[in-house]
Amino acid sequence: MASSFSRLSAAARLAALDLPGTVHLGRTTLEPLRRLPSGLAALDAVLDGGWPRGRVSEIVGGRSSGKTAVVLASLAAATRRGEVVACIDVADALHPDSLQRAGVDLARLLWVRPPASVEAVRCAELILQAGGFAVVVVDFGDDAPRRLRGHTWPRLARATEQAHAACLVLAPRQLEGSGSALALALRARRVLWQPGLWSLLDGLDVEAQVARSRLGGAGKAARVVMSF
Question: Could you tell me if 43 and 224 are in contact, meaning their C-beta atoms sit under 8 angstroms apart?
Fold first, then answer.
């Protein structure tokens, strides 16, 4: 009996077992990865529609490379859609006036200033586990944190996936390695100044390139002009 059963096809075996319900053979259809627009059309084209939800993305670059401007645009776009966002500001460099000028709704922003890098990642985990946040930013500023424990990044990636949020990590260099879905490298092309008697900062012209991606599109680049 066992020998004859083993010679049946997979479909025939399922029929012989007389299981309740309907069983489908073959590959399952995966749900498309949802994206969260950054608010910058040129950048969204490089990112295939925006930041991936449920994934950690790294934004890397030196001082004045445009990291903060990209994040402010992303936070503003999210709050305009009525979403709630959070920023863990390790460098203590965020200014409410800059947020407002960028169009961020401060009533929809949770601003956290942890004392150190280890606490920053833990804060991000707790916020993601609380739920309800579309974007959670961890901004390490211009100084890369010291080496963190090996389980730090996998835990952050798991919390991000469960929260179905977009987690953005800002640093001068890549930190997470395989823990992040993509790394976006920024490089300033030139600084834009307002014409007049006094030179006032008007914006940034930067090059954005997908330095690494587990979602496809590595190497894609675009010029992104941001006005302040």
Answer: yes
Q: What is the CATH number of the domain that holds 59?
A: 3.40.50.300
Q: Are residues 205 and 192 in contact, defined by beta-carbon separation less than 8 angstroms?
A: yes
If one counts the domains in the chain, the total is 1
Q: Give pLDDT, residue 129.
A: 96
Residue 61 counted as domain residue: yes
Looking from the CA of 180 toward its CB, the CA atoms found within 13 Å total 24
Token pair listed for 9 = 């096809």
Q: Is residue 9 included in any domain, yes or no? A: no
Total length of the chain: 228
Determine the Cα–Cα distance for residues 201 and 205; give it in Å rounded to an integer.
Answer: 12
Specify the DSSP class assigned to residue 106: G
pTM: 0.81
Instruction: Say if 23 falls within a structural domain.
Output: no
pLDDT of amino acid 88: 96
Distance CA 152, CA 145 (A): 13
| Phi, psi (degrees; rounded to nearest 5) at 57 | -120, 140
DSSP string, 153-200: HHHHHHHHHHHT-EEEEEESS---GGGSSEEEEEEEEEEEEE-SSS-E
Q: In angstroms, rounded to a whole number, what is the distance separating the alpha carbons of residues 117 and 147?
A: 10
Residue 12 falls inside a structural domain: no
CB 104 within 8 A of CB 135: no
Q: Give per-residue pLDDT as tens, 56-88.
A: 999 999 988 999 999 999 999 999 999 999 999
Each residue's pLDDT tens digit, 146-188: 666 667 888 999 999 999 999 999 999 988 767 789 999 999 8
